[in-house]
Amino acid sequence: MNVNFAERAHNHNWKLDPIVRSLLDTDFYKLLMLQFIWKNFPKTEVTSEVVNRTVSIRLAERIDAGALREQMEHVRGLRFRRSEMVWLAGNTFYGVRSIFEPAFLDWLENDFRLSEYQITEHEGQLTLRFQGLWTEVTMWEVYVLSMVSEMKTRWALSHLSELELDVLYARAKTRLWDKIEQLREVPDLNISDFGTRRRHSFLWQEYCVQALRVSLNQNGTQRFAGTSNTALAYKHDLEAIGTNAHELPMALAAMADRDAALRQSQYRVLELWQQSYGGALLVMLPDTFGTTQFLAGAPEWVADWTGQRVDSKDPVVAGDEYIAWLMKRGRDPRTKRLIASDALDVDDIVRLHANFRGRIRFSAGWGTLLTNDFRGCHPRGEDTFEPISLVCKLMTVNGRPAFKLSDNSRKSMGPADEVERYRRVFGSAAVDGALVLV
Amino acid sequence: MNVNFAERAHNHNWKLDPIVRSLLDTDFYKLLMLQFIWKNFPKTEVTSEVVNRTVSIRLAERIDAGALREQMEHVRGLRFRRSEMVWLAGNTFYGVRSIFEPAFLDWLENDFRLSEYQITEHEGQLTLRFQGLWTEVTMWEVYVLSMVSEMKTRWALSHLSELELDVLYARAKTRLWDKIEQLREVPDLNISDFGTRRRHSFLWQEYCVQALRVSLNQNGTQRFAGTSNTALAYKHDLEAIGTNAHELPMALAAMADRDAALRQSQYRVLELWQQSYGGALLVMLPDTFGTTQFLAGAPEWVADWTGQRVDSKDPVVAGDEYIAWLMKRGRDPRTKRLIASDALDVDDIVRLHANFRGRIRFSAGWGTLLTNDFRGCHPRGEDTFEPISLVCKLMTVNGRPAFKLSDNSRKSMGPADEVERYRRVFGSAAVDGALVLV
Fold it and tell me: Which pLDDT tens digit goes with each residue over A240-276?
């Protein structure tokens, strides 16, 4: 009686269930960085590569290269929609209007393209390589990471019965809600969703974001600050959160000829950045070549920046270091922001919030363990929903190798002789070995 | 684009969302007892009453008497459908064909009616009274209990947001699945769903039953024996489980004139029962007036019955008592069945199964804590989904008071002077005080 014949026929003739449904389905900082690159490095050529750090997972056995290509071609066929462009142009980001220049928006709407790419299989692993103008390559990162992550999810889902699927999501929702209840107890929290790239799926990320919004922003409180995902910020009237990533200092370092220029490149990025952006967007990421040397050698004006993001160092150590550095330079840390974003879960967030409360404005960028925590949720106890540590890294810039050292030596990547040169220039005293979970 | 206009309009013009959708939506034993009553006591007049034992819950504040009346009138307007009649006539119950006589089925299809009733409100409580022929009154019990239970659920649901509803069911499903995982570890279990009368809702009971069927009956094992709910047995090709209830000995006792006849009435029920039914349906319920006196005074042929159901006594004590009694009478307990059905949860089931394994064929009738365990699932920590102890009891039979003593003195109900007479006839040595949860 109630059969929806059209829907049924449509479902049976499904061609492609797209993972990335809009070019806005990316981290907001990619758009900020894209404008930065478009403005400062429009002719720069780069290559980048997707690497699966979790080598025990043979990705090629779970993801069909042909199906991946279809998804990627679908994204290449997307354009920014008229209403999306209007939103980018007219919206207020971090309290600032017109953050994107008209000329950039015009280029974005009419001339933006994604680069060519290659997919290869080797010993059960998939490798994706991108080559072209930096402006064409850079946006692939988040699209392709969330795509591979969701294709892995779909593979795992395809092995569950209808009831098992129901159990899986019931357990994941129960887990999410238990976390939310824990966070609701903490006053003055500041949390953002940073979980786009390693999410279980787009729809699950959307569910998590809506759950946080509804339950943490009640009665005038605003504990959920927003999401890094621009499509979700647009769709659900949330703040789009994010500033910049390691990609920028890595590229500028790769382009630097001599050792002095190499050393200076990490500050040169900041100079260029503040020519485009101000206020809350002046958040630095000092760990690309080690935080301690970065702070020690930083020009005086760096202390005027709004805050820093901690990505690879123990946030307690990095925060204390930053606070001491600010005080030594006569700045009040209580006006500055400290953003932690590396493999956080609820317990870390609550602990760090308590640790920094009243000392510095602490925010948590909650990533994979928000949008992809299915640990122990599989109805038959398998681990097929565990997120993998998939990263997309800049490999070369104008033909020269690019890499980072970071505060965590396990995250260092690049050819050995160049790593040596970088270590000589930047030192490696501050590198510690915090465990990399995701 | 995909709006189902017809569905949307239909949903907006909803008149009644029926709770009882079929006359089969009752415990199977009600149908067995109905045939028994139709055959042996077609002219007997009774009254019965719904009592809320959980007096702290003011039911009238949650359930509108008018809405309850609409639901009850809906059930009174139902008839057994043609296909349901065919199933009752042609199906095999407990391995026996034609358990229902053609004349009974003819009467059921054409002449069965539900009695008149009264709904009254007093101090925040609802009282429901039924009056008429026993054949017209008896079937109200399960319809009205599950109806009140689900109306209470709907009231609680109406105070939750869409997200909170989602969380509620995610938690309840997670709970259910955790229980199932525990049961899957135990070999040779025999579990049935006995949870119709105090279920969260019809659809939730159906979900629970399907989950048990799919997950406990795999690879040739059959740990889930079936459901007491006839509609679900019919719909999902499951065994309909159940035999008889206290209603029968209570009524026969009420009709007994002298003390000797009163004492004999508890065995007279069994005599009449075995004139209609045999084999697996010969399961007695000896606790109506105390198990110990029942067994002590039972005629020899009672030991030939297939088993007993334990409803108010600690099943370990009752089982040991039954086993000793059988052995004393030269019967092998390992061929007999012991069914526990009072407020069981998973831990009890596993413990009792282990206790009786190899000694007697143990089965668990899993009731309210299967179909209505939402403890701790409310997203704001309220207890509005807790089941209440609602019972429907026979009050009078041909104008004389009816009641039971049972093994649990807290379950005894009836006028004080008559209780005294019953205590004189049956004694009260065996009455213990096990906690009544539901």
Answer: 999 999 999 999 999 999 999 999 999 999 999 999 9
A7, A169, A173: best to mutate for the B interface, most B CBs within 10 A: A173
Model pLDDT, residue B430 = 44
Tell me the average pLDDT across B288-301. Answer: 95
- The H-assigned helical ranges of A190-258 are 202-216, 230-236, 247-255
Q: Which of B173, B210, B215 sits opposite A170 (nearest CB)?
A: B173
**A/B interface, count of CB pairs below 8 Å:** 45
pTM for this predicted structure: 0.89
Q: CA nearest A176 in B: which residue?
A: B167
Interface contact flag, A171 B163, Cβ < 8 Å: no
Q: pLDDT tens for residues B396-409? A: 999 999 988 877 66
* pLDDT tens digits, one per residue of B366-420: 999 999 999 999 999 999 999 999 999 999 999 999 988 877 665 566 677 887 8
Tokens of B2: 């995909």
Surface-to-core class of residue A389, CB atoms within 10 Å of its CB (0-12 exposed, 13-18 middle, 19+ buried): middle
For A163, which of B6, B211, B379 is closest by C-beta distance? Answer: B211
Of B7, B161, B174, the CB nearest to A174: B174
**What angle do helix axes B346-356 and B315-328 make, rounded to 10 degrees?**
20
State how far residue B174 is from chain A, nearest Cα, in angstroms: 5
Between β-strands B239-240 and B224-227, what pairing exists: parallel, antiparallel or unpaired? parallel
Chain B residues with CB under 8 Å of A210 CB are 163
- Tell me: pLDDT of A193 over 90: yes
Closest CA in chain B for residue A177: B167
Q: CA triplet B2, B5, B9: central angle to 5 degrees?
A: 145
pLDDT of residue A342: 87
Alpha-helical (H) ranges within A78-223 are 82-90, 102-110, 134-137, 140-157, 162-184, 202-216
Decide if B177 and A161 are in contact by the 8 Å CB cutoff: no
A348's enclosing H/E stretch is helix A346-356
Q: How far is A227 from A230, CA to CA, in rounded Å?
A: 7
Task: Specify whether the backbone of B91 is left (phi greater than 0), alpha (psi in -120 to 50) or beta.
Answer: beta
How far B1 CA lies from chain A's nearest CA (Å)? Answer: 10
A379 contacts in chain B (CB < 8 Å):
177
Q: State the pLDDT at residue B410.
A: 58
Q: How confident is the model at residue A431 (pLDDT cuts 50, 70, 90)?
A: very low
**Rounded Cα–Cα distance for residues A20 and A197 (Å):** 11
Q: Is the dihedral of CA A11, A16, A20, A24 positive or negative?
A: negative
Tens digit of each residue's pLDDT (9 = 90 or more) over A337-355: 999 998 899 999 999 999 9
Please give the ipTM for the structure prediction. Answer: 0.84
How far apart are the CA of B411 and the nearest CA of chain A, in angstroms? 37
Question: What is the enclosing helix (H) or strand (E) of A319?
Answer: helix A315-328
* Cα–Cα dist A243/A337, whole Å: 13
Summarised one tens digit per residue, pLDDT across range B151-197 is: 999 999 999 999 999 999 999 999 999 999 999 999 899 999 999 99
- Where do the domains of chain B lie, and which CATH numbers do they carry? 19-159+398-404 (3.20.140.10), 162-371 (3.20.140.10)
